[in-house]
């Protein structure tokens, strides 16, 4: 990081960029909330209103510009209208398009004048509103050009004389063009809009500039670092469950459609830029396989050692076959990216909702416990009752997400599939319209089943009546039983095959229960191993037979229970790679915390890298690692002013620790720290 980038990074950390912000004027939203207007036209008018109220901000030495100065994007519907929509339809989250990865490359290459030419003379609402939005964006970029001239920034002024009307001619152009498009999508009202495989679609610009001598490796890295800083200018304005949950996710490496390794110089520069900057955005995801060289895992572990909580790893050897088995075209499967957290999606071809619902495995165990344990002649009979509950809950969830309504996204539709050719808004659907269902609390359910098998059916030291009474009392008055269950060795993560087989059974039951079910858009339902925020905000409020009290959270995603002290990282990997994860390919990573001291030496870094490689070779599908020091985290809770730049991995994204609510901070602190 050179002397030009350092003050940019420091200004972002200090929040200096927030000084130019202002709220959207009170009452101005009425201009685009007229109930007589279509939702598409309202969206376009809102976009125009925001663009026209933006204040251009250009530093004299900047190369990449555009940042949000209007703080909020008001809804196009009044509260009453939204209530009416929710009463009539199923609305996912805010009712907007989210968790989607558009085709940036096409518009970066062609420019928006080419889009306007392609729709010239064509009639239809999508085309009408696109003309409105593109005109508004041109006005904004023209005002940025004027400001660049005023401050003496010739490079930006010359670039904006062409962009976004024309396509990119250089790597710097391509970065600026992406910034314009990404800014516009968020300003239109969509959220968790993914960056995708940036190292693939921007690499040709980098390669051309290097070959022509326009850039050197160092000057290209400088541009990329400034570009990455720009992701942090608006990240606090993007909606999420917690600050940092903003969906600015980049996927690097992996294979191409022919199976060749696609990791390139831009992939490497992205890793270097993130390591130099140590900012929470963009989040890096690294696609790997059994053929990935150990040097790449080592490089990635150096990034983990910075305490960023990324890269998150996705295993092509599992993901691609899993997607193909679900009906994805092999070329599309090979081109997969990840959504805001971990869910696998296809760029430009998907209108998938990969987080539409969540199934709680402990709930299935709890229901079977009360309905069937007392009458079950053996453990297999009880397990069958649990499987029936999983299947019933999966079917209930698929039935509950019908009559979907999504607000239009015209600017985004311009970069999605054949929407521009057909005049169809992407909110109406795309090639892939699949829904994903999270699988929450798996390790708690597995540990509970293992305890029931051992103590109720094998050793017969606990009666069904006693266990049910203890659970219903939240273990109050059952101190000895609580200790027996809580500290038993039969836990997922200890590498005990007969315990881990229970996870395999539950996951296969979950996946099988969704087979053959179509959603109303012709898509399928995908089972997953992620938890999202439900590990804390669960629908469940009961104790479980593994010795977990009712108030305790679950482990994050596809990970051991919080109170389990496992035998070590290898035993955890052994447990969590035993199931066939191609069957639950909605995604959801194994999350592990390593003490920060594990990364102090090259030997320690290589040891962690070898663990990651082992995970991949054994068939794990996703992995995310945290480098943490519990004592530092506890001190940060007391003295947050001293730790403004401290980053941790939360559930599928990284954030500044001191900006998280206390419950999320406490959960990170409670997770088990490993040493390799």
Structure in words:
The chain has 676 residues and is an alpha/beta fold. It has a domain of 203 residues. It is built from 27 helices and 15 strands. The strands form 5 sheets. Strands 3-4-5-12-11-15 form a 6-stranded mixed beta sheet. The chain has a 3-stranded parallel beta sheet with strand order 8-9-10. Strands 1-2 form a two-stranded parallel ribbon. Strand 3, helix 12 and strand 4 form a beta-alpha-beta unit. The model has no long low-confidence stretch (mean pLDDT 96).
In short:
This protein is of the alpha/beta class. The chain has 27 helices and 15 strands.
| Inertia-based shape | globular
Strand order of the largest sheet: 3-4-5-12-11-15
Distance between the termini: 30 Å
- Total number of helical segments? 27
Structural category: alpha/beta
Number of strands: 15
Overall mean pLDDT = 96
The major pleated sheet works out as:
6 strands, mixed
Topology diagram in text:
Elements: H1 5-14, H2 39-53, H3 79-88, E1 98-100, H4 104-110, H5 112-118, H6 125-151, H7 154-160, H8 171-188, E2 191-193, H9 198-201, H10 203-212, H11 217-230, E3 249-253, H12 265-277, E4 283-288, H13 294-305, E5 312-315, H14 316-325, H15 330-334, E6 337-338, E7 344-345, E8 353-360, H16 361-372, H17 379-400, H18 410-413, H19 419-422, E9 435-440, H20 442-458, H21 464-472, H22 479-486, H23 497-514, E10 525-527, H24 569-576, E11 590-595, H25 602-617, E12 622-628, H26 630-638, E13 647-649, E14 654-656, H27 662-670, E15 673-674
Parallel strand pairs: 1-2, 3-4, 4-5, 8-9, 9-10, 11-12, 11-15
Antiparallel strand pairs: 5-12, 6-7, 13-14
